Amino acid sequence: MHITFIGGGNMATAIIAGLVKTGQCQISVVEPDADKREQLAQRFRVTALAQLPVYFGGGQVVVLAVKPQQLREVCDSLAGRLDGALVLSIAAGVGVPALSRWLDGHDRIVRVMPNTPAMIGKGVSGLFARPVVDAQDRASAEQIMSAAGSTVWLSEESGIDDITAISGSGPAYVFYFLESLIESARQLGFDPATARELALSTFEGAVALARHSGEDIATLRANVTSKGGTTEQAIASFEASGLKSAILRGAKACRARSIELGEQLSQD
Predict the structure, then answer these.
(1) Of 103, 152, 112, 136, whose CA–CA distance to 1 is shortest?
(2) Is the pTM of this model over 0.85?
(3) What burial class does residue 39 get, using C-beta atoms within 10 Å of its C-beta: 0-12 exposed, 13-18 middle, 19+ buried?
(4) pLDDT at 7
(5) Topology of 170-259 in CATH?
(6) Which fold has domain 2-155?
(7) CA-based nearest residue to 100, from 129, 67, 65
(8) N or C: which end of the chain has fewer CB within 10 A?
(9) Tens digits of per-residue pLDDT, 25-53?
């Protein structure tokens, strides 16, 4: 598989790092920044280009990995160069209809919403494609994104906004909770390094237990929450503060903003 990344930023780098390990792809990166080009070429032994190739054939994959604000300009430049190539867009906000329109009606498009843990191969990506994209193209898209973690196919494009609210923005929610837990440890007298280690190790252990246990999450929480005990007091305080409701409202606010940005970015 010949894959050309348009843009060599953090997410593109994460996916490239995973793909290089498989040894199954020929990879090129179009990156205007000379320093980034040199770094990518040296680190991954990929072909780093300053400008778009003249032509992309049907057997090639083009990954749009630029900022959403740059996407229209990139698509305008690509429109006359695509000859059936599969296009993956990991740029946030811009929907498939707008991408197809900007690419002069090109419809072999898969839209992807990755998240930042892809940088260590632990990401999760939501993928959407219209029915015109066949099974082979879907398999190619999944193969590419699996190099950076797990994948979930979405039946409707609106699912991109839904998954943005959970896994796309979710790492920030986790970091927010970790910040609070670390600060709690600091206020209880632990030094910064110990406070960080306690919070990270507790979170890692809880996630590992949840993943490997046959119990549902509510049961696992109940197992730690003894009647009249210390954990019960903490959970009761969270409930009194409306913490769960606040998280639900936050996820919905994230989804609403994703929809709003998509509408703005997809305008002609």
Answers:
(1) 136
(2) yes
(3) middle
(4) 94
(5) ProC C-terminal domain-like fold (1.10.3730)
(6) Rossmann fold (3.40.50)
(7) 129
(8) C
(9) 899 999 999 999 999 999 999 999 999 88
